[in-house]
Design brief:
This protein has 13 helices and 14 strands. It is an alpha/beta fold. It is globular and about 80 Å long. GO terms for molecular function: dipeptidase activity; para-aminobenzoyl-glutamate hydrolase activity. Pfam families: M20_dimer, Peptidase_M20. One of its GO terms (biological process) is folic acid catabolic process.
C-alpha cells in the first residue's frame, strides 16, 4: 500500500491527500479554501442543477458574479457582446494574472447523481463538469485576492467568466475583443478522471450549420414536383464520409442532422446539418473546411436545392508552455490527489462496470500523473485562442471516477456528488498556489513569456477562425 507522509495537513473533510505547502502564503490560501469548501460545493451543485447550455447560462453566470462582487471584485458584465460573459477584477498594477471559469452544460445529458443511468427531467447536464470549473476557478481567485490584501503585494487578479465553451467559442470572441491584452499569464483547469498538469496541445476546431432549402410536395402524389432538402443533407454527408480516406489521419469530422423534415409523406423543403472539423493544426482545419464546403455545394447542385452556411465556432489548438506547466505540476504534487470515503468507493465500484466506461484503477484518483510535455489531447477548447495571445497553462483533476469519458452520463453523475466537489477543491488550491507563485516570482513570468514568444513566432498575428461574425447566441436553440 502506498504511504503518504504529511508534515502539515489542513482538515479536508477526510477527503484529499496532501503534502506540505511550500510557504506561508500557500498555507493561508489552502486554509481559506478549506474553510469555504462547503459553500463552494453548494454553489457548484446549484449550477449543476441549473444545467444551462451555451450563451443561456443566465443564472449560473449571475451566481458567480454575485459572489465575486461580495468579495470586492469589480465586475464588468456583458463583455464581447455576450450577455453571460463577464470579467471580475481586483487589485491594480502588474503583474496581471487571469483565471478562466466556465459554466455551460451540454444538451441531452440530463442525469441524476447516482451510479445508474437515470434522467431527472432536464434537457441538459454538466457532462463536462463546467459547474465545477467555474466555481473552482472562482474559489482560487478569491483566495488569491485575500492574499493580496493580507500581504500588501501589488498586482491584479482577474477572473474571466467565459460562456459557451461547448461549441460556442465564447473565449474566442473575448480574445477578439481585446480583453486579454494586458494579462501576463492565464491559468485554467478542467474536470477529468485523473490528476495532471501538462504542456500538451489540443485539436483546433471549426464548426458550422449547413442549411439546405428545397421544394415541398406530396411524397407519393407529386414527388416529381418536390426537391428534398434532406436529400441535400444526405448527399453532403455521403460526400464527406467518402472524403475521410483522403485527409490527414489526425483529422476528426463529426456531424448531426438537426432538422431532417417533419413528416415522411412531405418532401422536406428545409433540412439542416451541424458539422465539426478538428485537427492538431488550425491551418489544416481551414483547408479541410474548404473541402467540406465544396461537398455542401456539390450536394445542393446534385439535388436541385440551395445551401447556406452559418459558421458557429472556431478555436485554435493550445499553445503549450513548459515553464508554467512545471510550476503548476509542482503545486499539484504538493496538494495531492483524492482519497475516497467508503460511500464514494461504493459509488465508484457501481459505476465503473457501466457501459462506456474505460478500464482504469479506481485508486489512480489518489495519484498525480507525471508531467507530460509536448503531448496532444484529442479534445478542442477555446482556451486555445487565449493561449496564442497570453502565456497559458492548465491542469486536470479527478472529478470523475477513473475511466469516465467526458460528455457521458457517468460524468454528470459523479460531478453532481462529493467526488466531483473534492476534485474541484484540489484544482482551486493548485490554481491559487500557482498564481501566488507568479506574483512572488517575476522571473517565472519573464521566462514563460520568452518561451511563449519563441513558440508562436515573431510573425504571428491573431485572426479568429470564426471570422468577424458576432457571437452565435442562439446556436443551442
Amino acid at each position: 500500500m502506498r504511504k503518504y507522509f504529511t508534515l502539515f495537513l489542513f482538515p479536508l473533510m477526510g477527503s484529499v491527500l496532501a503534502q506540505t505547502p511550500p510557504n506561508k502564503a500557500h498555507e493561508n490560501a489552502i486554509k481559506e479554501i478549506n474553510q469555504k469548501e462547503k459553500m463552494y460545493g453548494a454553489m457548484a451543485k446549484q449550477i449543476w442543477n441549473y444545467a444551462e447550455v451555451g450563451y443561456q447560462e443566465v443564472k449560473s453566470s449571475a451566481l458567480l458574479q454575485q459572489q465575486l462582487q461580495k468579495e470586492g471584485f469589480k465586475v464588468q458584465v456583458g463583455v464581447a457582446d455576450i450577455p453571460t460573459a463577464f470579467v471580475a477584477t481586483f487589485g491594480e498594477g502588474k503583474p496581471v494574472i487571469g483565471i478562466l471559469g466556465e459554466f455551460d452544460a451540454l444538451p441531452g445529458l440530463s442525469q441524476d447523481s447516482i451510479p445508474v443511468k437515470k434522467a431527472i427531467g432536464g434537457i441538459a447536464g454538466h457532462a463536462c463538469g463546467h459547474h465545477l470549473f467555474g466555481v473552482g476557478s472562482m474559489a482560487s481567485a478569491i483566495a488569491v485576492k485575500n492574499w493580496l490584501v493580507q500581504s500588501g503585494h501589488k498586482g491584479t487578479i482577474r477572473f474571466y467568466g467565459t460562456p459557451a465553451e461547448e461549441g460556442g467559442s465564447g473565449k474566442a470572441y473575448m480574445v477578439r475583443e481585446g480583453l486579454f491584452k494586458d494579462v501576463d499569464v492565464v491559468l485554467h483547469w478542467h474536470p477529468g478522471d485523473s490528476n495532471s498538469a501538462s504542456s500538451s496541445s489540443s485539436l483546433a476546431n471549426k464548426s458550422a450549420k449547413f442549411r439546405f432549402r428545397g421544394i415541398s410536395s406530396h411524397a407519393a402524389g407529386a414527388p416529381d414536383r418536390g426537391r428534398s432538402a434532406l436529400d441535400g443533407v444526405e448527399v453532403m454527408n455521403y460526400a464527406v464520409n467518402m472524403m475521410r480516406e483522403h485527409i490527414p489521419s489526425a483529422t476528426r469530422i463529426h456531424y448531426v442532422i438537426t432538422n431532417g423534415g417533419k413528416a415522411p409523406n412531405v418532401v422536406p423543403d428545409f433540412a439542416e446539418v451541424y458539422y465539426y472539423v478538428r485537427h492538431p493544426s488550425r491551418q489544416y482545419v481551414a483547408s479541410i473546411w474548404e473541402r467540406v464546403q465544396k461537398a455542401a455545394q456539390g450536394a445542393a447542385l446534385a439535388t436541385g436545392t440551395t445551401v447556406e452556411e452559418e459558421v458557429i465556432g472556431g478555436v485554435y489548438e493550445l499553445l503549450p508552455n513548459d515553464v508554467l506547466a512545471q510550476t503548476m505540476h509542482n503545486n499539484l504534487k504538493a496538494i495531492g490527489g483524492l482519497k475516497y470515503t467508503p460511500e464514494e468507493m461504493k459509488f465508484a465500484e457501481q459505476i465503473l462496470p457501466t457501459q462506456g466506461m474505460g478500464i482504469r484503477e479506481i485508486a489512480s484518483a489518489e495519484r498525480i500523473e507525471s508531467l507530460e510535455n509536448e503531448g496532444l489531447t484529442s479534445a478542442s477548447t477555446d482556451v486555445g485562442d487565449v493561449s496564442w495571445n497570453v502565456p497559458t497553462v492548465g491542469l486536470r483533476t479527478a472529478t470523475w471516477v477513473p475511466g469516465t469519458p467526458a460528455h457521458s452520463w457517468q460524468a454528470v453523475a459523479a460531478g453532481g456528488m462529493s467526488i466531483g466537489r473534492k476534485g474541484m477543491i484540489v484544482a482551486a488550491k493548485t490554481l491559487a498556489m500557482t498564481a501566488i507563485d507568479l506574483f512572488q516570482n517575476e522571473k517565472t513570468i519573464t521566462d514563460a513569456k520568452a518561451e511563449f514568444e519563441k513558440r508562436r513566432g515573431a510573425d504571428f498575428s491573431y485572426k479568429a477562425l470564426l471570422g468577424d461574425r458576432k457571437p452565435a447566441l442562439n446556436y443551442r436553440d
